Amino acid sequence: HEHGNSNVIQLMKDPVLLPGSRNIVDRVAIHRSLLSVEQDPFTRQPLKENELIPQKELKEEIEIWKKKRL
Question: What is the DSSP code string of 5-68?
């Protein structure tokens, strides 16, 4: 599967897991969203930046994928 963000066709640089909805998004995208409203955009449940769960293995997979293809 491709390692893109469902909202934009772009490779994620720093994927994070949203604990409530279990969706994985790029940290930059969710950071911008949380500046406006501190909630999970998928569930509308309260969400703070410090609750984001880094996805280190996925980040490494993306880096390897980029090195092979870009």
Answer: -SSSSSB-SSEEE-TTT--EEEHHHHHHHHHH-SB-TTT--B--GGG-EE-HHHHHHHHHHHHH
Residue-wise pLDDT tens digits, 7-57? 545 789 999 999 999 999 999 999 999 999 999 999 999 999 999 999 999
Q: What is the pLDDT of residue 6?
A: 54
Report the C-alpha gap between 13 and 30 in whole angstroms.
12
Separation of alpha carbons 27 and 4, rounded Å: 13
Distance CA 30, CA 9 (A): 15
d(CA 52, CA 67): 26
Q: What is the pTM of this model?
A: 0.81
Tokens of 9: 């066709």
